[in-house]
Amino acid sequence: MRNDYDRSEANATTKLTYLLIGGGIGAVIALLFAPKSGVELRGDIADATRKGIEKGRETAAHLQDVAEEYYEVSREKASELYHTAQEKAEEFGEKAKAAAARSANPFTAAVEAGKEAYAAEKKKNEAKAISEGRPAYPVKEENK
Hints:
Blueprint: H1 4-33, H2 38-132
């Protein structure tokens, strides 16, 4: 997604390119219709061609510089966005883990508390049975 600055820069570059091409075509046409001798005309065309080639090279170098700048800026932005997204994903992952742990903990804690209470009561009854020498559950005594 490009912003307005990028669009205006691209439009300016495109307009500059069209201006140079149009100027070159206009110069060649002007030379062809100018009242000059063949040798002079060929020399003028050669000069205009050399100037056009130089301008084309300058424009190509400028466009290459601008493209490199855009590439670097885009690469940096993409890297920043990637790292930001990665950090956010890790943060959301941690939050999800914490939420899952919070929702699972009450049930787990209740089960663990029940197990501990059962074990404590069992030990208490076993200790009482050992100290009294009889089982903790009621036994009917039979008369013999």
